[in-house]
Amino acid sequence: MQKVGHTKMNISARKSDYIETTGNESKQHISAKRRLYGIVEDMGMVADFEIHTGTTKTEIGERHYTVDLFAFWTHVATGVTHKIAFEVEGYKGHNSRRQNARDNNRDQGHLRKGICTVRIQMKDLVGKKNLDDTTLKHEIIWQLIRQGMNMS
Predict the structure, then answer these.
(1) Per the structure, how many domains does the chain have?
(2) Which string of DSSP letters, residue by residue, matches 42-65?
């Protein structure tokens, strides 16, 4: 198991400036997580970085996962609180068949535990062709609705 550390992004005291990392993330990945944190917070969610989701039963046995961002969102009308795992898909390691199968297995295990997973491409968060916040918020909502979450 890797030790989780902190990376200080700048001298201001915002929560998103202190991002826990596993020590092997690129600066772009950290910037993407930081931007995603701001978007998620703007959507009314309470979030934190690099959260262990405990033991998850999957088709290939029990696994222990840490997600890039973990959030809680409470539906105003019903008072039901939802758990959401956010993953920033990097340029490497997330485009092979094997990794897609692993990610799907992980997502299904989390869903059985009542945790929805939202996956956002790093290129959509940072870089020259990144998407605007409104488009990313719509993508997050679409992914959550697709997993059965009531957002209205």
Answers:
(1) 1
(2) HTT-EEEEEEEEEEEEETTEEEEE
Which stretch of DSSP H or E encloses residue 124? Answer: helix 122-125
Give the up-direction half-sphere exposure of residue 149: CA atoms within 13 A in the CB hemisphere.
Answer: 23
User: Band of the pLDDT at 20, cuts 50, 70, 90?
Assistant: low
CB 118 within 8 A of CB 130: no
pLDDT tens, position by position, 97-140: 888 888 888 889 899 899 999 999 999 999 888 999 999 999 99
Tokens 């550390």 appear where? 5
- Average confidence (pLDDT) over 54-77: 88
CATH code of the domain in which 22 resides? 3.40.960.10
Domain that holds residue 132: 5-146
The token duo for 87 is: 């993953």
Answer yes or no: is 151 within a domain.
no
97's CB contacts (< 8 A; 6+ apart) are none
Structure tokens at 106: 């992980």
